[in-house]
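Lecture notes, unit on protein representations.

Consider one protein chain, 346 amino acids long.
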Amino acid sequence: MKKEQHVLVIRLSAMGDVAMLVPVVVALLEKYPQLHLHILTKALFVPFFEDFSRVETHVADTRGKHKSLPGILRLAAEIPNRINVIADVHNVLRSKILRRVLSMRGLKNEKISKGRRDKKALTRTENKVFKQLKTSHQRYADVFEKLGYPVDLKPSHVKPRKALSQPLVNKLNLSNQNTYIGFAPFAAHRSKRLPLNKIKAILSQLKQRLPHIKIIFFGGGKQEVEDLNELANEFSNCITAAGKFTFNEELILISNLKLMLSMDSGNGHLAAMFGVPVLTFWGGTHPFAGFATFLQPKENQFLPDLKKYPLLPISVYGNKMIDGYENVMESIDIDAALKRIIDLIQ
């Protein structure tokens, strides 16, 4: 039997990026029984890595005791001595300092290549190089390959779905007579938010064409919760989970969905890590940048009219906008999305 290897895996944020690590973790555990993974992340994301027998989580309190340089040194001192190697799949200033400190123990370490030059070429408005870039999932896997642990990512590399508890069923009045799909219609940046008229068109058509379908809204933040409550009050086929459950409970709900509708945002990645089919609506960003949900097909990606908006994508994260591109998501073909939803449900 091969000697046990303990790998420190660093990915502190953001939610979607941490969720994208899950399929790689599943693949590694499946192929290498000698591997023990130690995931360093924020407390909120610890549930992503529960239920794995050879995974430990270590919490980085970046706003508290692990803040600034003294905090990073304190964090380094808390890392177990049994760690053999480091996989930095974040590669930001904090993780770079941590790697440097831990390397004094003689630990081998590898870091992610983010492909910044290619992403810049994809998103610039002049001399754009419009091609599919390596996915974040594969970039994570590449780090482990450099450490001697290559994996081939497959659709089966997802977390098992979780059983619904009776309190959850009761709180949302869930029924076996209905099929449930998730809908996360908002995103952090305007360029990635589906216009309200498009949201309502989807909800109205689903109510007419699939009366047995119930839609569960997901979102966060005070304003989002208020907006989702208004939509749920307007459409009888909708209920909202936003603001009603713990994050752990939301994950359980998401894992039991038939389908998730999402913007280019974290909720899509949460569903994908459980193997739930995800339909993604893209705005100022594009799946070519590598942030599409795990192994979802091209048929599940709904894009603006690229003939009308040839400069897309204009950013990797959706935080940039150029004149005339404020309403790119108005050009998304909702009828095509509805057809795909019906095909997947039936």
